[in-house]
Amino acid sequence: MKSAQVTMDTGAHAAALAVKSARVDVVPGYPITPQTSIMEAIAAMVENDELHARFIPVEGEHSSMAAAVSASAAGARVFTATSANGLLYMHEVLHMASGGRLPVVMCNVNRGIFAPWTLWADHQDSMAQRDTGWIQYHCSSNQEVFNTILQAYRVAEQINIPVMVNFDGFAISHCLMPLTLPPQEDIDRFLPPYEPEWRLDPNHPSSFSNVTNAAEYAPFRQMLSEDILAAIPLVKQAAQEYKDITGMWDGDTIDTYRLEDAEVVAIAINSMAAELRLSIDILREQGIKAGLLRPRLFLPFPAEDIISALPQNAQVMVLDRNYNFGHPGGILASELKSMLFGRRNDITVKNRVMGIGGIDLTRRFMAAEIRAMMDE
Amino acid sequence: MTTSIKKLPDTEQVLSGNGACGGCPATMALRIVGKALGSNAIMLLTPSCSVASMGMTPKLAYNWPCINITFATAGSSASGITHALEIMKEKGRLQGELPTVFSWVGDGGTYDIGFQALSAAAERNDNMIFFCYNNEAYSNTGVQRSGATPRGSFTTTTPTGKRQPKKNMALLMLEHNIPYVATATVAYPGDLYDKVVKAKNIPGMKYIEILAPCYLGWQFDMPETVQMSRMAVRNGAWLLWEAENGKIDFNNPSSQIISGKKKAEPVNEYVMKQGRFNRLLKGSDAEQRIAEIQGDIDHQIAFMRERAKITI
Questions:
Q1: What is the ipTM score, two decimals?
Q2: Sequence ranges of the domains in chain A
């Protein structure tokens, strides 16, 4: 049996390697910083015959998602990637993928959105797609990007819902970290070939996203809403089976650190959550019983898992890298509060927005922020 | 020799009982296209008359798998399907002859909102046939102006008649260096049939534009669809041509107009017959505005005559 290969690689390249390992068929792509490196890597793999797939160099992200949706409807396993305004430009077609129940998997490399112009990370882009009916994962390491893309295909194809795998621009996409690549036969065991229940097939003419009346439209939407919630056990199962086969674990719907006896719980997603582990250590050294809860899954929001993981009477500090315009603070805090309401009245929630447009979030800075929030 | 209408196959891909208006030129054209394509095809549509009339979910009046895709993306969506089919065949997951992938899109989805994705699919020379059924307005939403609406035409967004000429979309597609471009219209079904058969057997990007006189938008009597289509060709408002690998050939009767063997009929009767134009006659500047319509047609005939001479 072949053993795993250990290398040093960027998050963007880890994503491309996962696409190769998933034996993806069609990849439409369009450049946008900081995602571009993923597309460049995949285009090279296709041209060098390392990946037997079609790369379609489309003229924009709207077309990128349209080609992905249509290739998926034709029965192919598809992938694409984008960032920031590219994701916003796709918005209409994101609904087409989820409403059409097509298991497209996409990476969004998080970046602040225009205007004004920024190249650096925050989470406004993916959070703004909250209501598109996509499952959203958020990753905090290069290895997790690789692992999550494979888990995303498992979940998407089981439930026919598209999945967005998010990770931060530059901090993850462009930084080298150790990366373990499991043997291909292990990945093939985890992720079997895609066999669609339905595809565009001249032997079985049928319409896709044709006109409906309300009596048909409403059940389609209700099924989508219910099935997104039903993804939670599948996400857990995928994480567990991936661990059983590869030995690697990033958490399932959530990931925790020093949480069990915590009195102060920091909640954050993506790369800042990796740095937050170090902040937790600082706070512990200062005598504060701090812990971390990182939602790996943002949509569906893993409410029950968070409710059962939070220690009694915890002070929760939500660190948002986005704004919830029209409300004070960020979107993650808002989701959390609405979920806790009436369920865990012992919990207090405080919230700060930070790291917008790539402002550096160091362990000391975040530890100090949490201390300051405790005094509020 | 153009195939006679009597020699077209009996097989139908447009099934009886669809929701199109009586005298609908798009449905008439699709019926002929279906005879040429056969059943081994995948159809892409964008929200338009041909979707609104194909039957409510789950019923379907077309004998193909049909995907109704976002308005702007007929070109890129067809690329997604054609690449998916080809790679699945390469990997052994599909057997036999691959289906023809074709888009069936109105002038709005071609000239306007769909232009970018179409242009890019053409530049990539992806394997598909892109049909534009051109009724010279957004008929499905109640007749608004598009880039295909001719000068002088009334629509609900050009309430005093459009002031700009239409663009020459088929020629723009030719300038993408694609292997096949053709124009057609419903009054010449054999010509349309032959062009589709030809396109079906050419790999890469093919563009076929079909003038589709819409009685609702053009405001003529429902039974006169074919007559209006024929008049448009005879007066040169619509030129029948095809281009294989960039060389333009005009088809009868447009070829006779271009060569000068036959004079194009004056546009007056065409204008008088259509409510969308004949409202111009009520204005004090009627003569000048009809002269503008005639001028646009004369210019296009002269321009295409010269353009066809470029064969390098």
A1: 0.97
A2: 5-245, 254-374
